[in-house]
Design a protein that fits this description.
heterodimer; A: 242 residues; alpha/beta; 2 domains; 6-stranded mixed sheet; 10 helices; 37% helix; globular; B: 290 residues; mainly alpha; ABC transporter involved in vitamin B12 uptake, BtuC; two-stranded antiparallel ribbon; 11 helices; 72% helix; binds adenosine-5'-triphosphate; binds magnesium ion
């Protein structure tokens, strides 16, 4: 579904990520883990067209995404939930959701309201707050809305950048319960996470990143039980959820 | 003996609405791109001159929408030539580039229409109507009504259409707008089109009470800019209130003190407001251009 071949990219002259190879199959949840500054966000930004690759390419369902700006990538079926949510803060919750579906070609009434009903069922909190300004939501609500906005695009692949960022453990558990539910529905997802144990617990397959390179990969179950992964690359800071 | 205060207010409100319409135009592009066209005065003058030439052919009322469309096209060109090349770089080159574009537009229009100011015939009879103790010229009503109508139309588009919401989304969070599929470059072009359309429309509206010429927009654009800063460059309502405050202060000073000092109170209000509320009366703080 999503294939990344020899991908390199950076800001300015020096590359920050080097020669990445990754594969995400239909219905799979793949996680990309690594410490601060490893290049995880840069990888996702390059996949979704916010950054131009300096080498290599990204294929989405056979389409070469090379050089496409993010609005075109989005129209091809990739939804990116960015680091720090990046909601439309002055707009209402409903407007954020409607705009999530902006790129859709099937914008007939029925299809949109079907997805709207679906996300409001997954995130019942948003229903109560639908006319509230997105910028005034709590951190947990904002993360829910960011995911809901991406779901409104009915994407083929959804990529999430640190959905746990800045949330209390109880909310992180809620967000991950929702991610597990979406996975069970057969959605294709890529999750970037600093808290490796969280992501490894829900993922099918995992890539470990350090200094801009993929240093390990394998089935999530296998990496989860591997002490050396945690010690060598993840700075040994697992998050314990109650 | 007639009480003159209502009369003075009428002329202040008329001028103020024009300042407000110009300020509204600055606000439109500022929110989407954190840039403005510093050649708005020339866009206004070119709009008025095109309107002057079209009126004998089309008649006044049919000329109005044509001038608005012309202003929109003018804005697309300004954005493409003077703004877009500098948007993705950290430089503030758009400042100089939009000023230069305005100078070129002024020179071209001097070649076409000459340097002299021309009279612009009003479509309405010069028969004053009495409203609340003041005599109002139909032309003044047309200015205020036309400006308000255009601004309300743009606000409705912004608030109630998906495309309008896409403009607001680009203003809030440009990168995320791209991620949901909004072509933010097109949105920014579109905002320049709307902005110059409002300037061109301001030009034809105000032309019958000023005179029409390539230099007519300079002072108006400066006052409009003050109004935009005063109201906050991020709010349409702020633009209108800012314009009215400056217009009314100017009319009061011109009448009760001296025409020579009419610019002073507007400036004082602006300085005072910026000291007390730097983001403007109705403004909010936006992230810097990225
Ligand atoms: N806009 C930028 N301009 C220049 N360098 C950047 C920029 N963003 C990130 N970098 C650099 O690129 C490297 C990788 O950053 P990136 O944000 O991809 O890491 P990350 O793995 O997502 O880290 P974190 O877990 O802290 O979010 C870092 O060294 C960072 O300093
Ligand atoms: Mg990151």
């Amino acid at each position: 579904m999503l294939t990344i071949e020899k991908l390199s990219a950076g800001y300015g002259r020096a590359d920050v990520i080097h020669n990445l190879d990754m594969k995400v199959h239909q219905g799979q949840l793949v996680c990309l883990i690594g410490g601060n500054g490893a290049g995880k966000t840069t990888t996702l930004r390059t996949i979704s067209g916010m950054l131009r690759p300096s080498g290599g390419r990204v294929l989405l369902d056979g389409h070469d995404l090379r050089g496409l700006p993010s609005h075109r990538v989005s129209a091809l079926g990739l939804a990116h939930v960015p680091e720090g949510r990046k909601l439309f803060g002055s707009l209402s919750v409903m407007d954020n959701l409607r705009l999530g579906a902006f790129a859709r070609k099937d914008r007939v009434r029925g299809a949109l309201s079907f997805d709207l009903d679906f996300v409001l069922e997954v995130f019942p909190l948003l229903r109560e707050r639908r006319s509230q300004q997105a910028g005034t939501l709590s951190g947990g609500e904002q993360q829910m809305l960011a995911i809901a906005r991406a779901l409104m695009a009915r994407p083929q692949v959804m990529v999430l950048d640190e959905p746990s960022l800045g949330l209390a453990p109880k909310l992180i558990a809620e967000v991950y319960a929702i991610i597990a539910r979406l996975r069970a529905e057969g959605r294709t997802m890529v999750i970037v996470e600093q808290f490796a144990n969280l992501a490894l617990a829900v993922a099918d397959h995992a890539y470990v990143m350090a200094n801009g390179c993929i240093v390990r990969e394998g089935p999530a179950r296998q990496l989860r039980d591997d002490e050396s992964v945690r010690n060598a690359y993840l700075g040994g800071h697992p998050l314990e959820l109650a | 003996m007639l009480d003159v205060l209502p009369q003075v207010l009428v002329s202040g409100i008329t001028l103020g609405t024009i300042y407000g319409l110009i300020a509204f135009g600055y606000q439109l592009t500022y929110v989407t791109s954190r840039t403005v066209n510093f050649g708005q005065g020339e866009a206004l003058a070119v709009g008025a001159l095109v309107g002057l030439s079209l009126t004998p052919m089309l008649g006044y009322w049919a000329m109005l929408p044509v001038v608005i469309v012309f202003g929109g096209l003018y804005g697309l060109v300004v954005e493409r030539i003077a703004v877009r090349p500098t948007l993705d770089s950290p430089s503030e080159g758009w400042i100089l580039a939009t000023i230069a574009f305005g100078i070129v537009a002024k020179n071209v229009s001097e070649n076409i229409w000459g340097k002299e100011d021309l009279p612009f015939p009003s479509p309405l009879p010069p028969l004053p109507i009495e409203i609340g103790g003041a005599f109002v010229m139909p032309t003044e009503l047309l200015i205020v009504g036309g400006a308000l109508l255009l601004m309300v139309a743009i606000e409705l588009f912004n608030r109630f259409t998906l495309l309008g919401r896409a403009f607001a989304a680009t203003a809030d969070e440009r990168e995320a707008a791209g991620l949901v599929g909004i072509d933010t470059e097109k949105v920014i072009s579109g905002s320049f089109a709307l902005s110059c359309a409002t300037a061109a429309c301001a030009g034809v509206l105000v032309a019958p009470v000023t005179l029409t010429g390539p230099g007519m927009g300079l002072v108006l654009a400066l006052k409009g800019f003050s109004a935009a800063i005063l109201g906050g460059l991020t709010s349409g309502l702020g633009a209108v209130v800012g314009g009215l405050l400056i217009g009314i202060a100017e009319a009061l000073t011109a009448f009760y003190i001296s025409t020579g000092y009419k610019e002073v109170p507007g400036l004082l209000i602006l300085l005072a407001a910026l000291t007390l509320k730097p983001e403007g009366l109705f403004g909010r703080v936006l992230a810097k251009k990225v």
